Amino acid sequence: MTDTDVVVVGAGLAGLVATAELADAGKRVVLVEQEPEASFGGQAWWSFGGLFLVDSPEQRRLRVHDSLELARQDWFGTAGFDREEDHWPRRWAEAYLQFAAGEKRAWLREQGVGFFPIVGWAERGGYTATGHGNSVPRFHIVWGTGPGLVEPFARRVRAAVDRGLVELRFRHRVDELVVDDGVVTGVRGGVLEPSDVARGEASSRTQVADFEIAAQAVVVTSGGIGGNHDLVRQNWPARLGPAPQRLLSGVPAHVDGRMLQATAAAGGNVINGDRMWHYTEGIANHSPVWDRHGIRILPGPSSLWLDATGKRLPVPLFPGFDTLGTLAHIGQTGHEHTWFVATHKIVEKEFALSGSEQNPDLTGKDVRLLLNRVKAGVAGPVQAFLDRGEDFVVARTLPELVAGMNRITGGEPELDLATVEAEVVCRDRAIANEFGKDSQITAIRGARHYLGDKLIRVAPPHRLLDPAAGPLIAVRLNLLTRKTLGGLETDLSGRVLQPGGAVFPGLYAAGEVAGFGGGGMHGYRSLEGTFLGGCLFSGRVAGRALAASL
After folding, report:
1. At residue 478, what are phi and psi to the nearest 5 degrees?
2. Which end of the chain is more exposed for a tag (fewer CB within 10 A), N or C?
3. Residue 121 and residue 453: Cα distance in Å, rounded?
4. What is the pTM of this model?
């Protein structure tokens, strides 16, 4: 039994930010985490480090004209808020937009966070001005990727440990909140046996002792449900089609939703549980760290995207345009995989891989290695998948390519060469013409007007069957779990609410477990770069508000 001012549950990014803010205010914090110390920093460590910023110096240097008003138009057009319980998510969305257009960048710069100078253009939408998607590039990559973003907050927390304000307790799994007369007064759970597994690897769940910690308040920052496929399927909405039977995991197994369920059992209100964010461009990791470990291809716009039967996906479901729109369409096809058909020239320019470990140049802050991104040739991590990835086919001719695609799937379903060839030839005929009606080709040409895309992201338009651009490359794309968009309902101080809207005394939440703020500040869909940012913002809000209230 231990007494402290605050217990923070979960040592991911939101938990580190909340703990650092509390400690800076002189509060005593016990930070508990069910995983070993090797996983300090949680999912954020594995991330590409993309952050949503509005009207930044990086954008302005690239002649990108952005504004809070345009970002608000894009956010709310994407979110599609339409429920009574969207009251707090709407307010969190507005607060986050103000943060992203205001002090977010300066606050991070003060702590030593730098940014790659070229801004990415994620979730391009392809609809009307008021519909889904980013009107301009806003995806700012942290110099150092996920580890570079985690490090300043981990450093602040460890400094607070040295000052005697923070106690780190790894291998402590919270099983329930302690509630006394309607007020959360602590946590209890089990101490798990020591584990020396590496970051992200599955750790033992053998319990060796019990623990209980009394506190004036508890902050839940335990993440979402992406590692628990059964829970993902239970919450899968009909609008995205049937719940998939085959899923890759974009997060480690410990992202299991335990604390979301435990907090709901104690009386916290969970809303928007059917809102989630999963990727359609997942590939099986050739060197998996966790079970069913998948990596996402971050695609440029040029690959030909075919469904499992070889038919082209409809407008505007082009690579990098509408993640959940594509996911919903796949659900209607009767199959759970799709295909990219590309050339070597497209792959070397447009294929990036999500994850800190897949980007050694940015993660390691290696300028010499970074220069390879503007040179000809396939990046090393991508080449490793071409050589060893189970989802990749490389061939000189289209018949050989289709035969290889059928080998990968075992002919389930059997791709017909004539169907694929017709799609490729028609696409090539359109790209050879200066005019035309193919919206994807118009989008490719439009993208190259943006300097960032032209330099490192979008290949010059060319025919797929041009021998000079070859060989041909096909990639089977799998569904990949990632983020929970709903969660614990919180007010603008991060206080968890009960069903009916009353504040649950003594209980706060931040990060993915709170839908990144309010129980779902993204609504139905995301603009990308907003998950890490949501953890930063909600962790800071909860930490500061709680410190002021004690």
Report:
1. -115, 160
2. N
3. 8
4. 0.97
